[in-house]
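Worked problem 6 (solution included).
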Amino acid sequence: MQYLDFEKNIPEIDKRIEEVKYSAMTKEADRATELDRLNAKKQKILTSLYKNLSAWQKAAVARHESRPHTSDYIAHIFTNFCPLSGDRNFADDSAIIGGFAKLDGRTVMVIGHEKGHDTESRIAHNFGMAKPEGYRKAIRLMKLAEQFGVPVITLVDTAGAFPGMEGEERGQGQAIAASTEACLELKVPLISCIIGEGGSGGAIALATGNVVLMLEHSIYSVISPEGCASILWKDAKMAPKAAEILHLTAQDLLKLGIIDAIVAEPIGGAHRFPEQTMGALKEALNKYLGQLEKLSPDELYIHRQEKFLTMTRLNEE
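Solution. The predicted structure is:
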């Protein structure tokens, strides 16, 4: 387990818990009592910490290496996943994965950024930073879902689109804009969820849904705190201040009307309790899909258009 900087005393308690588990205590009851005491102490500390996280601390939680990724959600929430590859134009981009799947018997198209879990898989998935062909693949899958009248679920977890020259050479900006447009024009239900990082246009390209959800400790912003700090103060060390002014937390964005609901995480974060977190998201997806399926194709289209036009009007005010 990777411990975050603000998780004081937790490593020491975890170490003590492990020692007690394998200690040579003669009485099983004594061991159980000590474990209960230590676990209660740990839970109290975690509760205090995670109820008062700063924006910068939430960014650290959102980026935790053990936080569930799109492939984890697909494996635990969905069944009968059929991966689809390629943009039918240039190549397949492993930073974005997607395909048809079943959600409690309901056929859906699931699309999401995949960061990878270790060095090898992170390199293979380019750390979840998609190139133009990744967004064009997403467009292809969304249109395929629309053709068959299947709801679309997108899982967003990216620091941003791929920033290299090759991406620009192949039309990165156009691909992101086209993917955003494709989201807006769909005539099937589209639910988007920020499960980790929602960075810049690379996130918006998959997050322009009828319903936009965020996990409690995920982040969603136009630029990373480090990038913002480097621009405003020429100093990446100012990232904690930048995180505050960016209003990138789920709580801030719900107040601003940018997202529709927050999916609660267990105390201690999704990286400690991945199955509980994925179960909570599954429940939320079923809830909102049930609501959206009552709307006609034209109503879904109008609902989505009005949703994002309303955001611009609020910002103008």
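Discussion: The domain at 57-316 is CATH 3.90.226.10 (2-enoyl-CoA Hydratase; Chain A, domain 1).
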